Amino acid sequence: MNIRNKTALHRLPVFRVLQCQALAAVLLALLCAGLWGWVAGYSGLLGGLIAWLANVYFAFKAFRYFGARSAKAIVQSLWAGEMGKQILAAALFALLFVVVRPLEPLAVFAGYLVVLAVGASALLLLNKNPKH
Questions:
Q1: How many CB atoms lie within 10 A of CB 103?
Q2: Domain spans of the chain, in order of start
């Protein structure tokens, strides 16, 4: 496996999805803060950041190789990225609930789910041409 074609994360089309997810996390935090107070605001932001950081890790691991010669590396990096994403999200949730007080759990999970939903739907919303 010495032939690998690497691409920087900021050059991949998935980078735009990550930008949309980060924006969604901030907007949800502002909405929660405006409607239910600052605790709900930063709780929503932290939940969104958990999903976003896990997705950044996945994107970094999964999409760094391309080309037919890198097929084995692509499969291995997809697997490692998904497993790492799940472990990272679980660890960040555990850390969040142990360290941060006060915390609004409903806002945490709302932020997490909104960022995941944006990631799932962003590919449909973004322009087909990733160069623009």
A1: 17
A2: 12-125
